[in-house]
Amino acid sequence: MSNAIIPLLLDSLASAALIFFAAVGLTLVFSVLRVLNVAHGSLYSIGGYVAASVCLFIASRQLNPYLSFVALLFSAVFVAAILGPLIERSLVRWTYGKSEAVQILITFGLFLILEDLQRLVFGVQSLYEDSPMRLLGTSSIGGVVYLNYQILLVAMAVLVVVGLRLLINHTRLGRLITAVVTDREMAQSIGIDTNRIFILAFSLGVFLAALGGALATPTSGIAPGLGADTMVLAFAVAAIGGLGQIEGAAVASLIVGFARVLAIYLVPSLDAVAPYAAMLAVLLIRPYGLFGSVTARRI
Amino acid sequence: MLNVDKVSVSIEGVRVLRKISCDIVARKTTVLIGRNGAGKTTTLRAIMGLIPRDEGSIRLDSDDLGSMPAHTRARAGIGYAPEDRRLIPELSVEENIRLPALALNLDKAEIARRLDEIYMLLPELHVMRSRPAGGVSGGQGKMVALGRALTVARKVLLLDEPFQGLAPALALEYARTLGELRRHRPELALLITESSPVLLDRVADRTLQIERGEILVPSTKDDKAHVHEV
Protein backbone atom coordinates (compact mmCIF):
# COMPACT_ATOMS: atom_id res chain seq x y z
CA MET A 1 0.00 0.00 0.00
CA SER A 2 2.64 2.52 1.06
CA ASN A 3 4.53 1.69 -2.12
CA ALA A 4 1.70 3.30 -4.04
CA ILE A 5 0.98 6.18 -1.69
CA ILE A 6 4.46 7.65 -1.22
CA PRO A 7 5.20 8.22 -4.92
CA LEU A 8 1.68 9.56 -5.34
CA LEU A 9 2.24 12.06 -2.53
CA LEU A 10 5.64 13.08 -3.83
CA ASP A 11 4.34 13.54 -7.36
CA SER A 12 1.45 15.60 -5.98
CA LEU A 13 3.79 17.80 -3.96
CA ALA A 14 6.14 18.40 -6.88
CA SER A 15 3.26 19.10 -9.22
CA ALA A 16 1.73 21.44 -6.61
CA ALA A 17 5.04 23.29 -6.25
CA LEU A 18 5.23 24.06 -9.98
CA ILE A 19 1.61 25.22 -10.16
CA PHE A 20 2.19 27.33 -7.06
CA PHE A 21 5.00 29.36 -8.65
CA ALA A 22 2.66 30.34 -11.48
CA ALA A 23 -0.36 30.99 -9.27
CA VAL A 24 1.32 32.97 -6.50
CA GLY A 25 2.68 35.52 -8.98
CA LEU A 26 -0.74 35.87 -10.56
CA THR A 27 -2.40 36.39 -7.20
CA LEU A 28 0.30 38.82 -5.99
CA VAL A 29 0.01 40.96 -9.12
CA PHE A 30 -3.76 40.91 -8.81
CA SER A 31 -3.73 42.04 -5.19
CA VAL A 32 -1.35 44.97 -5.74
CA LEU A 33 -2.29 46.11 -9.26
CA ARG A 34 -5.90 44.85 -9.27
CA VAL A 35 -5.30 43.51 -12.75
CA LEU A 36 -5.80 39.86 -13.66
CA ASN A 37 -2.88 39.31 -16.02
CA VAL A 38 -4.04 36.79 -18.62
CA ALA A 39 -0.51 36.74 -20.08
CA HIS A 40 0.94 35.47 -16.80
CA GLY A 41 1.24 31.90 -18.11
CA SER A 42 3.37 33.10 -21.04
CA LEU A 43 5.88 34.55 -18.59
CA TYR A 44 6.10 31.10 -17.01
CA SER A 45 6.85 29.51 -20.38
CA ILE A 46 9.32 32.27 -21.35
CA GLY A 47 11.18 31.55 -18.11
CA GLY A 48 11.18 27.90 -19.16
CA TYR A 49 12.48 28.60 -22.67
CA VAL A 50 15.27 30.87 -21.47
CA ALA A 51 16.33 28.38 -18.79
CA ALA A 52 16.20 25.42 -21.19
CA SER A 53 18.22 27.34 -23.80
CA VAL A 54 20.90 28.28 -21.29
CA CYS A 55 21.04 24.74 -19.88
CA LEU A 56 21.37 23.30 -23.39
CA PHE A 57 24.16 25.78 -24.05
CA ILE A 58 25.94 24.72 -20.87
CA ALA A 59 25.58 21.06 -21.83
CA SER A 60 26.75 21.62 -25.42
CA ARG A 61 29.89 23.45 -24.28
CA GLN A 62 30.49 20.83 -21.60
CA LEU A 63 30.75 23.48 -18.93
CA ASN A 64 30.44 22.54 -15.28
CA PRO A 65 26.94 20.97 -15.20
CA TYR A 66 26.22 22.45 -11.78
CA LEU A 67 26.15 25.82 -13.54
CA SER A 68 22.72 24.84 -14.80
CA PHE A 69 21.27 25.38 -11.30
CA VAL A 70 22.60 28.92 -11.38
CA ALA A 71 21.17 29.21 -14.88
CA LEU A 72 17.67 28.24 -13.70
CA LEU A 73 17.65 31.00 -11.09
CA PHE A 74 19.27 33.65 -13.24
CA SER A 75 16.99 32.95 -16.19
CA ALA A 76 14.08 33.92 -13.95
CA VAL A 77 15.86 37.05 -12.69
CA PHE A 78 16.78 37.97 -16.27
CA VAL A 79 13.23 37.54 -17.60
CA ALA A 80 11.78 39.51 -14.68
CA ALA A 81 14.28 42.35 -14.90
CA ILE A 82 13.69 42.85 -18.63
CA LEU A 83 10.03 41.97 -19.17
CA GLY A 84 8.63 43.07 -15.78
CA PRO A 85 9.23 46.82 -16.05
CA LEU A 86 8.80 46.75 -19.85
CA ILE A 87 5.34 45.16 -19.83
CA GLU A 88 4.10 47.09 -16.80
CA ARG A 89 5.16 50.49 -18.15
CA SER A 90 4.18 49.91 -21.77
CA LEU A 91 0.88 48.07 -21.41
CA VAL A 92 -0.45 47.11 -18.00
CA ARG A 93 -0.34 50.59 -16.47
CA TRP A 94 -2.87 51.87 -19.00
CA THR A 95 -5.41 49.42 -17.62
CA TYR A 96 -5.34 50.64 -13.99
CA GLY A 97 -8.78 51.61 -12.85
CA LYS A 98 -10.32 50.42 -16.13
CA SER A 99 -13.06 47.81 -16.27
CA GLU A 100 -12.14 44.14 -15.95
CA ALA A 101 -13.19 43.53 -19.56
CA VAL A 102 -10.61 46.06 -20.79
CA GLN A 103 -7.92 44.59 -18.54
CA ILE A 104 -8.60 41.07 -19.74
CA LEU A 105 -8.69 42.10 -23.40
CA ILE A 106 -5.42 44.01 -23.17
CA THR A 107 -3.57 41.30 -21.26
CA PHE A 108 -5.06 38.69 -23.61
CA GLY A 109 -3.58 40.70 -26.50
CA LEU A 110 -0.29 40.62 -24.64
CA PHE A 111 -0.65 36.86 -24.25
CA LEU A 112 -1.06 36.42 -28.02
CA ILE A 113 1.98 38.62 -28.68
CA LEU A 114 4.14 36.75 -26.18
CA GLU A 115 3.08 33.34 -27.50
CA ASP A 116 4.03 34.30 -31.08
CA LEU A 117 7.25 35.91 -29.92
CA GLN A 118 8.23 32.65 -28.24
CA ARG A 119 7.64 30.72 -31.48
CA LEU A 120 9.70 33.32 -33.31
CA VAL A 121 12.62 33.27 -30.89
CA PHE A 122 12.67 29.66 -29.67
CA GLY A 123 10.99 27.89 -32.59
CA VAL A 124 8.15 25.38 -32.43
CA GLN A 125 10.33 22.44 -31.37
CA SER A 126 10.16 21.37 -27.78
CA LEU A 127 13.31 21.91 -25.73
CA TYR A 128 14.44 19.37 -23.18
CA GLU A 129 17.51 19.38 -21.00
CA ASP A 130 17.26 17.42 -17.77
CA SER A 131 20.84 17.68 -16.49
CA PRO A 132 19.80 19.51 -13.26
CA MET A 133 17.43 16.65 -12.48
CA ARG A 134 19.95 13.93 -13.32
CA LEU A 135 22.68 15.62 -11.29
CA LEU A 136 20.65 15.41 -8.11
CA GLY A 137 19.97 11.73 -8.62
CA THR A 138 17.49 9.64 -6.69
CA SER A 139 16.91 8.51 -3.13
CA SER A 140 14.68 5.89 -1.66
CA ILE A 141 12.47 5.66 1.36
CA GLY A 142 11.40 2.16 2.33
CA GLY A 143 12.18 0.81 -1.09
CA VAL A 144 10.35 3.60 -2.92
CA VAL A 145 12.66 5.43 -5.31
CA TYR A 146 12.08 9.11 -5.96
CA LEU A 147 13.83 12.02 -7.66
CA ASN A 148 15.74 14.39 -5.40
CA TYR A 149 14.84 17.17 -7.82
CA GLN A 150 11.20 16.81 -6.71
CA ILE A 151 12.26 17.54 -3.14
CA LEU A 152 14.14 20.61 -4.38
CA LEU A 153 10.96 21.86 -6.10
CA VAL A 154 8.93 21.49 -2.91
CA ALA A 155 11.65 23.16 -0.84
CA MET A 156 11.78 26.08 -3.26
CA ALA A 157 8.00 26.51 -3.07
CA VAL A 158 8.11 26.53 0.74
CA LEU A 159 10.94 29.05 0.55
CA VAL A 160 8.81 31.29 -1.66
CA VAL A 161 5.83 31.19 0.74
CA VAL A 162 8.02 32.01 3.75
CA GLY A 163 10.01 34.59 1.81
CA LEU A 164 6.93 36.43 0.56
CA ARG A 165 5.39 36.45 4.03
CA LEU A 166 8.60 37.86 5.53
CA LEU A 167 8.83 40.42 2.75
CA ILE A 168 5.27 41.62 3.25
CA ASN A 169 5.14 41.57 7.05
CA HIS A 170 8.67 42.51 8.03
CA THR A 171 10.26 44.80 5.48
CA ARG A 172 9.83 48.42 4.55
CA LEU A 173 8.85 47.46 1.01
CA GLY A 174 6.28 45.04 2.40
CA ARG A 175 4.69 47.80 4.51
CA LEU A 176 4.48 50.05 1.48
CA ILE A 177 2.95 47.24 -0.59
CA THR A 178 0.39 46.62 2.17
CA ALA A 179 -0.51 50.32 2.18
CA VAL A 180 -0.97 50.33 -1.61
CA VAL A 181 -3.09 47.16 -1.50
CA THR A 182 -5.30 48.53 1.29
CA ASP A 183 -5.81 52.07 0.00
CA ARG A 184 -4.08 53.26 -3.13
CA GLU A 185 -5.07 56.89 -2.74
CA MET A 186 -4.10 57.15 0.91
CA ALA A 187 -0.79 55.49 0.04
CA GLN A 188 -0.09 58.30 -2.41
CA SER A 189 -1.07 60.94 0.11
CA ILE A 190 1.44 59.68 2.65
CA GLY A 191 4.22 59.81 0.07
CA ILE A 192 4.30 56.36 -1.54
CA ASP A 193 5.20 56.37 -5.22
CA THR A 194 2.55 53.87 -6.26
CA ASN A 195 3.97 53.52 -9.79
CA ARG A 196 7.23 52.27 -8.31
CA ILE A 197 5.33 49.72 -6.19
CA PHE A 198 3.38 48.57 -9.26
CA ILE A 199 6.58 48.03 -11.27
CA LEU A 200 8.21 46.15 -8.39
CA ALA A 201 5.16 43.98 -7.66
CA PHE A 202 4.61 43.18 -11.33
CA SER A 203 8.27 42.28 -11.79
CA LEU A 204 8.16 40.11 -8.67
CA GLY A 205 5.16 38.32 -10.19
CA VAL A 206 7.06 37.83 -13.46
CA PHE A 207 10.05 36.50 -11.51
CA LEU A 208 7.93 33.92 -9.68
CA ALA A 209 6.27 32.78 -12.91
CA ALA A 210 9.58 32.60 -14.79
CA LEU A 211 11.16 30.75 -11.86
CA GLY A 212 8.33 28.19 -12.01
CA GLY A 213 8.86 27.76 -15.75
CA ALA A 214 12.62 27.47 -15.33
CA LEU A 215 12.32 24.87 -12.56
CA ALA A 216 9.75 22.91 -14.59
CA THR A 217 11.90 22.45 -17.71
CA PRO A 218 14.26 19.77 -16.33
CA THR A 219 11.25 17.60 -15.42
CA SER A 220 9.00 17.96 -18.43
CA GLY A 221 10.80 20.01 -21.06
CA ILE A 222 9.11 22.93 -22.73
CA ALA A 223 6.94 23.17 -25.82
CA PRO A 224 4.56 25.68 -27.41
CA GLY A 225 1.21 25.82 -25.65
CA LEU A 226 2.63 25.56 -22.16
CA GLY A 227 1.79 29.22 -21.51
CA ALA A 228 -1.92 28.74 -22.09
CA ASP A 229 -2.06 25.51 -20.06
CA THR A 230 -0.24 27.16 -17.18
CA MET A 231 -2.44 30.24 -17.25
CA VAL A 232 -5.63 28.24 -16.90
CA LEU A 233 -4.19 26.12 -14.09
CA ALA A 234 -2.78 29.16 -12.29
CA PHE A 235 -6.14 30.86 -12.51
CA ALA A 236 -7.91 27.80 -11.11
CA VAL A 237 -5.46 27.74 -8.20
CA ALA A 238 -5.77 31.47 -7.53
CA ALA A 239 -9.56 31.20 -7.60
CA ILE A 240 -9.61 28.22 -5.24
CA GLY A 241 -7.28 29.96 -2.79
CA GLY A 242 -9.08 33.28 -3.05
CA LEU A 243 -7.65 35.89 -5.44
CA GLY A 244 -4.88 37.81 -3.72
CA GLN A 245 -4.17 35.24 -1.02
CA ILE A 246 -0.60 33.94 -0.85
CA GLU A 247 -1.24 31.13 1.65
CA GLY A 248 -4.50 30.45 -0.18
CA ALA A 249 -2.54 29.86 -3.37
CA ALA A 250 -0.25 27.46 -1.53
CA VAL A 251 -3.12 25.38 -0.13
CA ALA A 252 -4.98 25.50 -3.45
CA SER A 253 -1.84 24.32 -5.28
CA LEU A 254 -1.75 21.30 -3.01
CA ILE A 255 -5.40 20.56 -3.72
CA VAL A 256 -4.97 20.91 -7.48
CA GLY A 257 -1.66 19.02 -7.50
CA PHE A 258 -3.21 16.19 -5.54
CA ALA A 259 -6.35 16.14 -7.69
CA ARG A 260 -4.29 15.93 -10.87
CA VAL A 261 -1.95 13.21 -9.68
CA LEU A 262 -4.81 11.21 -8.21
CA ALA A 263 -6.56 11.40 -11.57
CA ILE A 264 -3.39 10.31 -13.40
CA TYR A 265 -3.03 7.32 -11.08
CA LEU A 266 -6.69 6.32 -11.05
CA VAL A 267 -8.46 7.63 -14.17
CA PRO A 268 -5.77 9.02 -16.52
CA SER A 269 -8.33 10.38 -18.96
CA LEU A 270 -9.60 12.80 -16.30
CA ASP A 271 -6.17 14.36 -15.71
CA ALA A 272 -7.06 17.62 -17.46
CA VAL A 273 -10.48 17.92 -15.84
CA ALA A 274 -9.44 17.27 -12.24
CA PRO A 275 -8.19 20.79 -11.37
CA TYR A 276 -11.42 22.38 -12.62
CA ALA A 277 -13.56 19.83 -10.84
CA ALA A 278 -11.72 20.82 -7.66
CA MET A 279 -12.24 24.51 -8.47
CA LEU A 280 -15.93 23.97 -9.10
CA ALA A 281 -16.36 22.08 -5.83
CA VAL A 282 -14.59 24.77 -3.79
CA LEU A 283 -16.29 27.74 -5.43
CA LEU A 284 -19.75 26.19 -5.01
CA ILE A 285 -19.19 26.15 -1.27
CA ARG A 286 -16.97 29.24 -0.94
CA PRO A 287 -17.53 31.61 -3.87
CA TYR A 288 -14.59 33.84 -2.92
CA GLY A 289 -12.19 30.93 -2.52
CA LEU A 290 -10.85 29.18 0.56
CA PHE A 291 -9.05 32.19 2.05
CA GLY A 292 -10.99 34.96 0.36
CA SER A 293 -13.97 36.95 1.54
CA VAL A 294 -15.92 39.83 0.09
CA THR A 295 -14.16 42.40 2.22
CA ALA A 296 -10.86 40.73 3.10
CA ARG A 297 -7.75 42.70 2.35
CA ARG A 298 -5.94 40.81 -0.31
CA ILE A 299 -2.32 39.93 0.17
CA MET B 1 2.88 79.47 1.40
CA LEU B 2 0.27 77.26 -0.30
CA ASN B 3 -1.33 79.10 -3.16
CA VAL B 4 -4.40 77.83 -4.99
CA ASP B 5 -5.09 79.87 -8.09
CA LYS B 6 -8.30 79.67 -10.18
CA VAL B 7 -8.59 75.91 -9.81
CA SER B 8 -11.54 74.18 -11.47
CA VAL B 9 -12.36 70.51 -11.04
CA SER B 10 -15.02 68.33 -12.63
CA ILE B 11 -16.23 64.95 -11.45
CA GLU B 12 -17.96 62.84 -14.10
CA GLY B 13 -18.42 65.91 -16.28
CA VAL B 14 -19.97 68.01 -13.51
CA ARG B 15 -18.09 71.10 -12.35
CA VAL B 16 -17.60 70.84 -8.60
CA LEU B 17 -14.97 73.55 -8.17
CA ARG B 18 -15.22 76.79 -10.14
CA LYS B 19 -12.04 78.82 -10.31
CA ILE B 20 -11.37 78.73 -6.61
CA SER B 21 -8.44 80.77 -5.33
CA CYS B 22 -7.04 80.97 -1.84
CA ASP B 23 -3.80 81.37 0.04
CA ILE B 24 -3.04 79.12 2.96
CA VAL B 25 -0.42 81.05 4.86
CA ALA B 26 2.19 79.99 7.38
CA ARG B 27 1.50 80.56 11.09
CA LYS B 28 -2.24 80.85 10.42
CA THR B 29 -5.19 78.51 10.77
CA THR B 30 -7.49 78.87 7.80
CA VAL B 31 -10.93 77.38 8.11
CA LEU B 32 -12.95 76.49 5.03
CA ILE B 33 -16.64 76.43 5.83
CA GLY B 34 -19.27 74.98 3.56
CA ARG B 35 -22.26 72.70 3.44
CA ASN B 36 -22.10 69.07 2.33
CA GLY B 37 -21.39 68.97 -1.37
CA ALA B 38 -20.04 72.52 -1.46
CA GLY B 39 -16.61 71.27 -2.54
CA LYS B 40 -14.57 71.21 0.69
CA THR B 41 -13.24 67.70 0.31
CA THR B 42 -12.66 68.19 -3.42
CA THR B 43 -10.59 71.29 -2.64
CA LEU B 44 -8.31 69.26 -0.36
CA ARG B 45 -8.16 66.38 -2.81
CA ALA B 46 -7.20 68.79 -5.58
CA ILE B 47 -4.41 70.20 -3.42
CA MET B 48 -3.21 66.65 -2.73
CA GLY B 49 -3.22 65.84 -6.45
CA LEU B 50 -5.72 63.03 -5.98
CA ILE B 51 -8.10 64.42 -8.56
CA PRO B 52 -7.29 65.93 -11.97
CA ARG B 53 -7.82 69.67 -12.44
CA ASP B 54 -9.48 71.25 -15.47
CA GLU B 55 -7.51 74.44 -15.00
CA GLY B 56 -5.66 76.52 -12.46
CA SER B 57 -2.43 76.12 -10.54
CA ILE B 58 -1.42 74.96 -7.09
CA ARG B 59 1.91 76.15 -5.70
CA LEU B 60 3.78 75.50 -2.50
CA ASP B 61 6.18 78.40 -2.01
CA SER B 62 7.84 78.50 -5.43
CA ASP B 63 7.14 74.88 -6.43
CA ASP B 64 4.40 74.14 -8.92
CA LEU B 65 2.61 71.16 -7.33
CA GLY B 66 0.11 70.88 -10.15
CA SER B 67 2.57 69.23 -12.49
CA MET B 68 3.86 66.74 -9.91
CA PRO B 69 2.39 63.32 -9.03
CA ALA B 70 0.34 63.00 -5.84
CA HIS B 71 3.00 61.23 -3.80
CA THR B 72 5.35 64.24 -3.94
CA ARG B 73 3.06 66.22 -1.58
CA ALA B 74 4.20 64.31 1.47
CA ARG B 75 7.87 64.91 0.75
CA ALA B 76 7.12 68.59 0.15
CA GLY B 77 5.79 68.72 3.72
CA ILE B 78 2.03 68.60 3.27
CA GLY B 79 0.16 66.36 5.72
CA TYR B 80 -3.41 65.31 4.98
CA ALA B 81 -6.00 63.72 7.27
CA PRO B 82 -9.07 62.70 5.26
CA GLU B 83 -12.53 62.81 6.80
CA ASP B 84 -12.93 59.03 6.67
CA ARG B 85 -9.54 58.39 8.41
CA ARG B 86 -8.44 55.60 6.02
CA LEU B 87 -6.11 53.76 8.35
CA ILE B 88 -4.71 50.31 7.67
CA PRO B 89 -6.78 48.21 10.06
CA GLU B 90 -4.31 45.31 10.41
CA LEU B 91 -1.40 47.50 11.40
CA SER B 92 -1.04 48.94 14.87
CA VAL B 93 -1.75 52.58 15.63
CA GLU B 94 1.96 53.32 15.78
CA GLU B 95 2.69 51.49 12.53
CA ASN B 96 0.02 53.60 10.86
CA ILE B 97 1.60 56.78 12.18
CA ARG B 98 5.08 55.65 11.09
CA LEU B 99 3.97 54.63 7.61
CA PRO B 100 4.58 58.04 5.97
CA ALA B 101 8.05 58.13 7.54
CA LEU B 102 8.78 54.72 5.96
CA ALA B 103 7.46 55.94 2.63
CA LEU B 104 9.79 58.95 2.78
CA ASN B 105 12.64 56.69 3.93
CA LEU B 106 13.50 58.89 6.91
CA ASP B 107 16.31 57.69 9.12
CA LYS B 108 15.59 56.00 12.45
CA ALA B 109 16.56 58.98 14.62
CA GLU B 110 14.31 61.31 12.65
CA ILE B 111 11.38 58.86 12.83
CA ALA B 112 11.83 58.57 16.61
CA ARG B 113 11.99 62.35 16.94
CA ARG B 114 8.77 62.86 14.98
CA LEU B 115 7.00 60.09 16.89
CA ASP B 116 7.99 61.69 20.20
CA GLU B 117 6.68 65.01 19.01
CA ILE B 118 3.36 63.46 17.97
CA TYR B 119 2.99 61.55 21.24
CA MET B 120 3.66 64.73 23.17
CA LEU B 121 0.86 66.48 21.31
CA LEU B 122 -1.47 63.49 21.35
CA PRO B 123 -0.67 61.49 24.50
CA GLU B 124 -3.74 59.28 23.98
CA LEU B 125 -2.06 57.87 20.85
CA HIS B 126 0.87 56.75 22.99
CA VAL B 127 -1.53 54.85 25.24
CA MET B 128 -3.09 52.94 22.35
CA ARG B 129 0.01 52.77 20.13
CA SER B 130 0.17 48.96 19.99
CA ARG B 131 -3.53 48.37 19.37
CA PRO B 132 -4.56 47.43 15.83
CA ALA B 133 -5.91 50.50 14.05
CA GLY B 134 -8.98 48.49 13.06
CA GLY B 135 -9.91 48.21 16.73
CA VAL B 136 -10.03 51.88 17.70
CA SER B 137 -13.24 53.90 17.73
CA GLY B 138 -14.12 56.35 14.99
CA GLY B 139 -13.13 59.31 17.11
CA GLN B 140 -9.84 57.76 18.17
CA GLY B 141 -9.26 56.92 14.51
CA LYS B 142 -9.47 60.65 13.75
CA MET B 143 -6.68 61.24 16.25
CA VAL B 144 -4.59 58.51 14.61
CA ALA B 145 -5.20 60.08 11.20
CA LEU B 146 -4.11 63.43 12.65
CA GLY B 147 -0.97 61.82 14.04
CA ARG B 148 -0.20 60.22 10.70
CA ALA B 149 -0.68 63.53 8.89
CA LEU B 150 1.64 65.23 11.39
CA THR B 151 4.40 62.75 10.54
CA VAL B 152 4.87 64.50 7.21
CA ALA B 153 3.35 67.94 7.87
CA ARG B 154 6.51 70.06 7.95
CA LYS B 155 4.83 73.03 6.28
CA VAL B 156 1.12 72.50 5.70
CA LEU B 157 -1.53 70.42 7.47
CA LEU B 158 -4.85 69.73 5.77
CA LEU B 159 -7.68 68.40 7.96
CA ASP B 160 -10.93 67.36 6.33
CA GLU B 161 -13.91 67.80 8.66
CA PRO B 162 -12.03 66.66 11.76
CA PHE B 163 -15.06 67.14 14.01
CA GLN B 164 -17.45 65.20 11.81
CA GLY B 165 -18.87 62.34 13.86
CA LEU B 166 -16.89 63.09 17.00
CA ALA B 167 -18.61 62.75 20.36
CA PRO B 168 -18.76 66.13 22.18
CA ALA B 169 -16.06 65.15 24.68
CA LEU B 170 -13.71 64.01 21.91
CA ALA B 171 -14.49 67.13 19.88
CA LEU B 172 -13.40 69.29 22.82
CA GLU B 173 -10.28 67.18 23.17
CA TYR B 174 -9.55 67.53 19.46
CA ALA B 175 -10.01 71.31 19.59
CA ARG B 176 -7.66 71.48 22.58
CA THR B 177 -5.10 69.46 20.60
CA LEU B 178 -5.34 71.90 17.70
CA GLY B 179 -4.60 74.73 20.17
CA GLU B 180 -1.56 72.83 21.47
CA LEU B 181 -0.44 72.19 17.92
CA ARG B 182 -0.55 75.91 17.17
CA ARG B 183 1.68 76.56 20.19
CA HIS B 184 4.21 73.81 19.45
CA ARG B 185 4.34 74.21 15.71
CA PRO B 186 3.72 77.92 15.18
CA GLU B 187 5.23 77.85 11.68
CA LEU B 188 2.62 75.41 10.37
CA ALA B 189 0.00 76.51 7.84
CA LEU B 190 -3.29 74.85 8.76
CA LEU B 191 -6.30 74.36 6.52
CA ILE B 192 -9.34 72.85 8.22
CA THR B 193 -12.68 72.22 6.54
CA GLU B 194 -15.90 72.08 8.53
CA SER B 195 -19.59 72.41 7.88
CA SER B 196 -20.30 74.56 10.91
CA PRO B 197 -18.22 77.62 11.83
CA VAL B 198 -19.09 77.31 15.53
CA LEU B 199 -16.76 74.39 16.24
CA LEU B 200 -13.68 76.18 14.96
CA ASP B 201 -14.45 79.68 16.07
CA ARG B 202 -11.69 79.67 18.64
CA VAL B 203 -8.92 78.14 16.52
CA ALA B 204 -9.64 79.97 13.26
CA ASP B 205 -7.42 82.88 12.29
CA ARG B 206 -9.22 83.28 9.01
CA THR B 207 -12.44 81.84 7.68
CA LEU B 208 -13.30 81.17 4.06
CA GLN B 209 -16.75 80.24 2.82
CA ILE B 210 -17.24 77.77 0.02
CA GLU B 211 -20.60 77.43 -1.67
CA ARG B 212 -21.44 75.37 -4.75
CA GLY B 213 -17.80 75.11 -5.71
CA GLU B 214 -16.98 78.76 -5.30
CA ILE B 215 -15.08 80.47 -2.51
CA LEU B 216 -17.03 83.52 -1.42
CA VAL B 217 -15.59 86.83 -0.43
CA PRO B 218 -13.68 86.29 2.81
CA SER B 219 -15.62 87.14 5.91
CA THR B 220 -15.32 87.27 9.73
CA LYS B 221 -12.00 87.69 11.49
CA ASP B 222 -9.80 88.46 8.54
CA ASP B 223 -11.03 90.06 5.38
CA LYS B 224 -7.64 90.09 3.72
CA ALA B 225 -7.49 86.33 3.25
CA HIS B 226 -6.67 86.70 -0.43
CA VAL B 227 -3.71 88.90 0.30
CA HIS B 228 -0.30 87.32 0.83
CA GLU B 229 0.93 87.37 4.39
CA VAL B 230 4.33 86.58 5.78
UniProtKB/TrEMBL annotation, chain A:
GO MF: transmembrane transporter activity
Keywords of this entry: Amino-acid transport, Cell membrane, Membrane, Transmembrane, Transmembrane helix, Transport
Stored Pfam families: BPD_transp_2
Protein name, UniProt field: Branched-chain amino acid ABC transporter permease
Family label: Belongs to the binding-protein-dependent transport system permease family. LivHM subfamily.
Membrane topology: Multi-pass membrane protein
InterPro entries: ABC_transp_permease, BCAA_transport_permease
Cell compartment(s), UniProt: Cell membrane
GO biological process, one term: amino acid transport
GO cellular component: plasma membrane
Chain ranges passing through the membrane: 12-36, 43-60, 66-87, 148-168, 197-216, 273-291
Automatic annotation (TrEMBL), chain B:
Record carries keyword Lipid metabolism: no
Family matches, as Pfam families: ABC_tran
InterPro entries to which the protein is assigned, alphabetical: AAA+_ATPase (IPR003593), ABC_transporter-like_ATP-bd (IPR003439), BCAA_Transport_ATP-bd_LivF (IPR052156), P-loop_NTPase (IPR027417)
An example Gene Ontology molecular-function term: ATP hydrolysis activity
ABC transporter domain sequence ranges: 2-230
Gene3D superfamilies: P-loop containing nucleotide triphosphate hydrolases
One annotated GO biological process: L-amino acid transport
Keyword terms, alphabetized: Amino-acid transport, ATP-binding, Nucleotide-binding, Transport
Classification via PANTHER family: HIGH-AFFINITY BRANCHED-CHAIN AMINO ACID TRANSPORT ATP-BINDING PROTEIN LIVF (PTHR43820:SF4)
Cited function: Involved in beta-(1-->2)glucan export. Transmembrane domains (TMD) form a pore in the inner membrane and the ATP-binding domain (NBD) is responsible for energy generation.
Family assignment from sequence similarity: Belongs to the ABC transporter superfamily.
Protein name: ATP-binding cassette domain-containing protein
Organism taxonomic ancestry: Bacteria, Pseudomonadati, Pseudomonadota, Alphaproteobacteria, Hyphomicrobiales
